[in-house]
Amino acid sequence: MLNIEFPDDLISLSLYNVFSSRINDRKFIKHAKDWNKKIVLHIEPFYPVTVIFDGTNIKFDRKEDPEPDMKVTIHVNTMLDIANDRLNPFFAIEEGKMEVDGLGEDSEKIMRFYNIFVVSMQMVASEPNVNYFEINKDTR
Amino acid sequence: MTTIHQRNVFERISKDNVYSKLVKIFGRDYVSDKDVDLYPYSQDMTENKPHMPDFVVIPQNNEQLIELVKFCNEFSIPIVPYATGNNVGGLTIPDYGGIIVDFGKKMNKILHIDDNMMYALLEPGVTFGQLKKHLEENYPQLRYSFPNAPPYSGVVGNVLLSGMTNLAAKIGSMADSINGLEVITADGNVARIGSCFYGKDKADDDSWWCRYPMPDLLGLFVNFQGMTGLVTKCAVQLWPKEPIEKPQLVVFFGLTDLAPFLREVGRADIVNDVAAFSIEVAKMEVGIPEPVRYPEEPPYTAVVPMSAKTENQMNAKLEILNNIIEKLNNEGTNIHLIDYREFAKLFNLKALNIFNLPSQILSLHEYSGLTWFGAYAPSHKFEELIEKTDELYRKHGVPPFNYLKIMKGGHYGIFRPIFRFKKFKDQDKIVKLLEEIADVCIDLGCIPYKTPSWITAKLREKINPGWLALFEKIKDCMDPNNIFNPGRWNT
Q1: Cα–Cα distance, B286 to B489 (Å, whole number)
Q2: Is the distance from CB of A39 to CB of A51 less than 8 angstroms?
Q3: What's the complex ipTM?
Q4: Which of residues 45-104 of A touch B (CB under 8 A)?
Q5: Most buried residue among B242, B277, B291, B450 by CB atoms closer than 10 A?
Q6: Quick one: closest CA in B to A135, which residue?
Q7: Which domain holds residue B168?
């Protein structure tokens, strides 16, 4: 099982929504568990967020880590084009619409990033996460 | 807050005799004087002081209501109309006791939908959810203009109080699209207002198609908060449902970037509505208990419902919207446009609640208290309103929940700070903030709607004496014994 920390900023909340939709998905668990990487995702025009994969935990830091394992910069509308299958993510890189630093030739890193981020967004875009009904007991 | 001086409801007739009369009119099953039945009507979610009614009655027809009004007028017994009790102004709290007339239980029928002239004839207890379902199932080519309110709230109450709609940028408030009313006045007279005014006893269902050109008597009942008569029927305009819908999300990175956008887009005639709100509202919607705005986040966002008859028309509208944003950004704002439905799927589906109206935003209602300063606002004062209220929110340590709109082709605006709070715990703090915000907004020319009497008392200090004299004269003329919802507007 994975633990996904519930964040309170706009972009991390979106990532939480995307990741938590696959929290019981074996393939997602396989890729996210023990990845132990810090990925900076800068969705423009918003701010960069560092996603920290640490053992079975996924955490968010709404700052850019100075030494990330990977940094991805993408405009929100390009991200929506990829999520909704209007744009192939590899073409997006080729066309300079998505900048990826730190990818190198590490095929495992490519595979994990693709599955955790791209596939999850595409899955949520086609079948939204409806598992959000939580009672906030503190406010009752 | 104002003090209410109690009056003796049963000065001229005993409570037992009133009960007997009510049973005679409505039948034993539809009258109650039991505390357990009366308690829910004694309060609402707001800060306004609770007060128990003496009776609740459930009417089924006009004959019963005519008899009730004549009886109450003879013995000066207050009558408070009630549909669903969801207003945020304490408007159905019976400040002087008397009789609650609960329309929501039996007088809740959709009497007629006119497909040709596009209107709905409603009884006072019809809810937004009921009307939406009825139209979707039977008249999918038509739509109503829905507010940011739960589906179980009443249409007619909101219409008569000039509530908001998700077609506000086109048509203005709900009261702007009333075709006609049927009302019972203090003497028991039944008046039909609007094109339905022909005919002695009854109007044909297809005669409620227009409000003009006779003298517009609707003004005697709109925004009067039930102080001038009992409305028993209301005809509201419907609109063609356009097949192409592409709601947009606009994000604003400067605190007041929203203001020029609202003014420009309002007059462009391309959007149905602009539902703008502070980022804290968006976070509250997805369940963050005490939302905080971080410096890097956009302070405001707006959901912009757009519809068109064809894809080409939609593309033209989007082109105009993009041009407006480009122009404003060249002038120094930092505004961005995103496809709303697509973004909501990634962000959180709950965000669609602000688009798919009517809807219940659970996290707004999950506290025991809810109140607001909902106001019509001069749009050239938006910047000042945002900045000054932002300071007040910070001073009191309360997250800013502001909603803004542009109305009727940009002719005026709406500014609505709203507050959820825990009753008996932080009510005093919220009321203090609300009072300070009310003072600032009124000073800047805002005019609150669905206004509780403690705020109308503030307004009275600023309203010109001629208006007040005319208002009092009309109230005295329409309701000489002050039986209709006494206390509203400090009557």
Answers
A1: 37
A2: yes
A3: 0.93
A4: 45-47, 62, 76-77, 79-80, 83-84
A5: B277
A6: B287
A7: 110-240
Pick among B257, B345, B349, B419 to test the A interface (most A CBs inside 10 A): B345
Q: Can you give the CATH number for the domain in which B338 is found?
A: 3.40.462.10
Q: For residue B481, what are its two tokens? A: 């014994």
pTM for this entry: 0.94
Contacts of B296 in chain A (CB under 8 A): 46-47, 62
Residue B386 in contact with residue B403, Cβ under 8 Å? no
Q: Are residues B418 and B440 in the same domain?
A: yes
- What CATH number does the domain containing B118 carry? 3.30.465.10
Where does the pLDDT of residue B2 fall: very low under 50, low under 70, confident under 90, or very high at 90 and above?
A: low
Could you tell me if residue B368 is inside a domain?
yes
pLDDT 10s digits, B183-202: 999 999 999 999 999 998 88
Q: Is residue B188 part of a domain?
A: yes
Chain B residues within 8 A of A8 when measuring between CB atoms: 283, 288, 291-292
Which class does domain A3-125 fall in? alpha beta
Hey, is the C-beta of A5 within 8 angstroms of any chain B C-beta?
no
User: What is the DSSP code string of A30-52?
Assistant: HHHTT---EEEEEEETS-EEEEE
Q: Which two tokens stand for residue A68?
A: 């990330």
Nearest-CA distance from A130 to chain B in Å?
7
